[in-house]
């Protein structure tokens, strides 16, 4: 019918517009039609108004900055349309076998099959759910806004122009304070039943004076058969970073603090 035809036309115009946009020149080939449809839905739903440039092109996902729409402003409770971060997982590039292992034993994602597309979509929903749970537990993470198929929209970090800096990229003025903040985040996350699983100076972002933990896609619940191993690895990475900052901290001290034993 007429409405469907109009919708189709609007969608192809949208797709062409994105494909032609400079920032998507390289990536357009890796975006499949379903990804364009997901981005289109997010525009229609008011989460995205206009796309900015790429912030990061990773192994499995690309992160873009974008201008958020009215719904994004509502979620963050701000007057002006905020900037948002759009993380797009590439279904074909994703190492879904590895992802599958992180979904095992998670009571929230029981019965996820072995279909690549389904695994990646469960992964994105898991990242959204983990961000929500972390926030509730009092851990500073980007505020999650929407998830649509293989696309996650969240609060954009970084207060000054340009890309937000990782902890690994800055001179840490006060390592004692930073360590206390991060170990408290780890404890709160653990008390909320989550283990980050890839925590290091590369997944902590500086947002003004705040330290913000990112990249919670692989975070598992404590039910996961390897959650203890992941927690020990997180403790090792974090303690090693602060030892390099001249601090006298051990992996074991940190683990004891986080698990309270
Ligand atoms: P990598 O393999 O590089 O770790 P990834 O797929 O694990 O990538 P993230 O770590 O979530 O993805 O994001 C990659 C990079 O994008 C981050 O290091 C950071 O620079 C930037 N980034 C991610 N989320 C945000 C955000 N909400 N606001 C600002 N920048 C972000
Ligand atoms: Mn990362």
TrEMBL record:
The lineage, from the top, is: Archaea, Methanobacteriati, Methanobacteriota, Stenosarchaea group, Halobacteria
InterPro entries cross-referenced by the UniProt entry: Kinase-like_dom_sf, RIO-type_Ser/Thr_kinase, RIO1_kinase, RIO_dom, RIO_kinase, RIO_kinase_CS, Tyr_kinase_AS
EC number per UniProt? 2.7.11.1
Question: Which SUPFAM superfamilies does the UniProt entry name for this protein?
Answer: Protein kinase-like (PK-like)
Could you tell me which Gene3D superfamilies the record lists for this protein?
Answer: Phosphorylase Kinase, domain 1, Transferase(Phosphotransferase) domain 1
Could you tell me what reaction this enzyme catalyses? L-seryl-[protein] + ATP = O-phospho-L-seryl-[protein] + ADP + H(+); L-threonyl-[protein] + ATP = O-phospho-L-threonyl-[protein] + ADP + H(+)
Domain RIO kinase residue range list: 20-260
What family is it from? Belongs to the protein kinase superfamily. RIO-type Ser/Thr kinase family.
- Spell out the protein name for this chain: non-specific serine/threonine protein kinase
Keyword annotations? ATP-binding, Kinase, Magnesium, Metal-binding, Nucleotide-binding, Serine/threonine-protein kinase, Transferase
Which top-level group of life is the source organism from? Archaea
């Amino acid at each position: 019918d007429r409405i469907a035809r109009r919708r189709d036309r609007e969608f192809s115009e949208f797709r062409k517009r994105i494909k032609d946009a400079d920032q998507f020149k390289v990536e357009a080939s890796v975006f499949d039609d379903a990804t364009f449809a997901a981005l289109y839905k997010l525009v229609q739903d008011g989460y995205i108004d206009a796309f900015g440039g790429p912030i990061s092109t990773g192994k499995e996902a690309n992160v873009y900055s974008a201008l958020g729409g009215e719904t994004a402003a509502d979620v963050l409770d701000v007057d002006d349309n905020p900037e948002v971060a759009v993380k797009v997982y590439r279904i074909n590039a994703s190492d879904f076998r590895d992802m599958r292992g992180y979904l095992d034993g998670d009571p929230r994602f029981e019965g996820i099959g072995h279909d690549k597309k389904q695994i990646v979509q469960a992964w994105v929903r898991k990242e959204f759910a983990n961000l929500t749970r972390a926030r509730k537990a009092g851990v500073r993470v980007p505020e999650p806004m929407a998830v649509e198929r293989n696309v996650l929209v969240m609060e954009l970090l970084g207060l000054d122009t340009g890309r937000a800096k990782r902890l690994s990229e800055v001179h840490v003025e006060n390592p004692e304070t930073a360590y206390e903040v991060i170990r408290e985040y780890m404890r709160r996350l653990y008390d909320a039943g989550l283990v980050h699983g890839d925590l290091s100076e590369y997944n902590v972002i500086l947002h003004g004076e705040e330290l913000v933990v990112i990249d919670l896609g692989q975070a598992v619940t404590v039910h996961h058969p390897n959650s203890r191993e992941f927690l020990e690895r997180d403790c090792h990475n974090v303690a090693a970073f602060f030892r390099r900052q001249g601090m006298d901290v051990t992996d074991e001290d940190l683990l004891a603090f986080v698990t309270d034993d």
